[in-house]
Amino acid sequence: MLPLPSPSSFSITPYSFLCLNFISYPLFKYSQNHSYRYPSLLGLSIFTLHAMAIDCISNIASMTHHPKDEKKDEQKKLVFDASVLKFESQIPKEFIWPDDEKPSANAPELQVPLIDLGGFLSGDPVATMEASRFISEACQQHGFFLVVNHGVDAKLLADAHKYMDNFFLLPLRQKQRAQRKLGEHCGYASSFTGRFSTKLPWKETLSFRYSAENNSSKMVEDYLVNKMGNELRQLGRVYQDYCEAMSKLSLGIMELLAISLGVGRAHFREFFDKNDSIMRLNYYPPCQKPDLTLGTGPHCDPTSLTILHQDRVGGLQVFVDNEWHSISPNFEAFVVNIGDTFMALSNGRYKSCLHRAVVNSHKPRKSLAFFLCPEGDKVVTPPAELVSQNSPRVYPDFTWPMLLEFTQKHYRADMNTLQEFSNWVQQRNS
């Protein structure tokens, strides 16, 4: 056999060199018999053979791989790739929910008030009082209501949905450039595979921070460009505009909430005026076994107020009177619900309600969720009008960053988040 180049000249280890000889020798003999001359080796360069050698070593290593290591590797490698999993008839066990939490078929429709904001936005005092009364009734019962004539531009809404499609149809590797890190609330997440190992949600999300501070006018755009590159600048501009529209709408709703609770009309608007909020794009791909999994598990939002815009595919369900109910999509309306932080601000008068999302086998579902949150240094404490001898304090004082950290690092959000957090705060203070 003719000598091959020295291993050191190609940074080949002794083991890979042995494999290289093992692979190349039969090829060389073949080339001798068929008038080929070294180093062509049937058109394979030494670099190609080197790659084959590495492959050879990998195969040998895998043969000696311990089963426990394989199990660890498998768990580590679990990735929710919607482009693949939406066709799978056998879904991974990590996405299968317990029998008592599996989705219920034919959930009855929840009767939620449809509140026309047109009169309130134009300054009509009668329409304002009527809207606040409807909101009060809904928030004492389950915390969900719909708003129409909300003043949000229809083209902006259409663009927000279009660019959501554009993002989630990107290859997984490209979306992972904005990968959400453990313990953080911003970025791209393909399910919660890196954080939990059971009851995983059948969804992808992209979350980013929005601040109403005057010097934050390009925060969303800059974040997405920094993470994904300049080709997503227009997407960033659309969601910057969308967040600004949501912030404005949520401050108006806060006025109505204040009126409905009998506190100063400007109280909550001023509290959230420089809000530091979260925007989330939700994508629920089809699932061939929709009766086994959930798009989002049962939870109460830990934030203050959620403004949700659904596409035309149903999936939102709310737990009321010990039964799951659906809220059908209405493209003209926003679904609004109270979160844990506002429940604490209202001293428990308004409810943060348990809800979830279900999936189907034939259509993807998409939604836009804006989570209103106060500035980091604002102390969440109810106004004096809502505290009395007959209505003592229900929850301790806290700041939003404390609750956010609790949900990201200590506790998976569910129906008991606020109570568990309150216990945690009280233990820490004592």
UniProtKB/TrEMBL annotation:
Domain annotation Fe2OG dioxygenase: ranges: 274-374
Pathway: Hormone biosynthesis; Plant hormone biosynthesis; gibberellin biosynthesis
GO molecular function, one term: gibberellin 20-oxidase activity
Any Gene Ontology biological process: gibberellin biosynthetic process
Annotated keywords: Iron, Metal-binding, Oxidoreductase
SUPFAM superfamilies named among the record's database cross-references: Clavaminate synthase-like
Cofactor(s) listed: L-ascorbate
Catalytic activity: gibberellin A12 + 2 2-oxoglutarate + 3 O2 + H(+) = gibberellin A9 + 2 succinate + 3 CO2 + 2 H2O
Superkingdom per UniProt: Eukaryota
Coiled coil (UniProt feature): none
InterPro entries named among the record's database cross-references: DIOX_N, IPNS-like_FE2OG_OXY, IPNS-like_sf, Iron_ascorbate_oxido_reductase, Oxoglu/Fe-dep_dioxygenase_dom
Protein family membership: Belongs to the iron/ascorbate-dependent oxidoreductase family. GA20OX subfamily.
Name listed for the protein in its UniProt record: Fe2OG dioxygenase domain-containing protein
Organism this protein belongs to: Gossypium raimondii
Lineage: Eukaryota, Viridiplantae, Streptophyta, Embryophyta, Tracheophyta
